[in-house]
Design goal:
Radius of gyration: 20 Å
Number of strands: 0
Mean pLDDT: 83
Structural class: mainly alpha
Low-confidence stretches: none
Number of helices: 6
Oligomer: single chain
Helix content: over 70%
Distance between the termini: 23 Å
């Protein structure tokens, strides 16, 4: 839980900062524009709705990474018992997390590219410059989602590793040795 919360908070912070730096309006797709047309005087803030969607989207990945690491460390602790210290568990969690991150980040980036592939083909067909593509709000939102999600996943690894190691070792992390870092 702590790893997922830490990852989602990281995603939210990155999304919030970048949303304000690159001036996202939230009207990058048809659904957002439809919301504006059906607003009925409620003055919806579609940029904040988009921000919430980014944070919710990052939740699935951070939960997946956190559960995978914590269950692996619990299994490792069960097999090794008192022979493994909390710091060794934390180091193993980081190692496991790095392996998971490689697969997760590849999946995330390929999913974003795959979902935007037709749009990229249109940009190519109309000879739209790289500068125009990067400044397009649809692309900026996809980049924002990817960055926020990636940083959320990234931060969930050390938070989960340290928390799971601490809890598995019942607060007795043992002596921190140089090879444990």
């Amino acid at each position: 839980g702590m790893g997922a919360i830490g990852g989602v908070l990281t995603s939210a912070l990155i999304a919030y900062i970048l949303k304000n730096v690159i001036w996202i309006t939230g009207t990058a797709d048809e659904q957002a524009i439809s919301l504006l047309y059906t607003d009925n005087g409620h003055n919806l803030d579609v940029a904040s709705i988009m921000f919430a969607a980014i944070v919710i989207g990052s939740l699935g990945g951070t939960i997946d990474v956190s559960v995978s690491i914590s269950s692996s460390l619990e299994e490792l602790k069960g097999k090794m018992g008192k022979d493994i210290t909390g710091w060794e568990l934390a180091r193993s969690g980081m190692s496991i997390g790095c392996d998971i991150m490689g697969a997760s980040l590849n999946t995330m980036i390929l999913a974003y590219v795959g979902s935007s592939f037709q749009l990229l083909m249109l940009f190519s067909a109309y000879n739209i410059s790289l500068e125009e593509i990067i400044n397009n709000e649809m692309i900026a939102v996809e980049l924002l989602r990817a960055l926020a999600g990636c940083f959320g996943l990234l931060m969930s690894v050390p938070i989960t590793s340290l928390t799971a190691a601490y809890l598995s070792s019942k607060g007795n992390m043992g002596e921190l040795r140089l090879h444990d870092v």
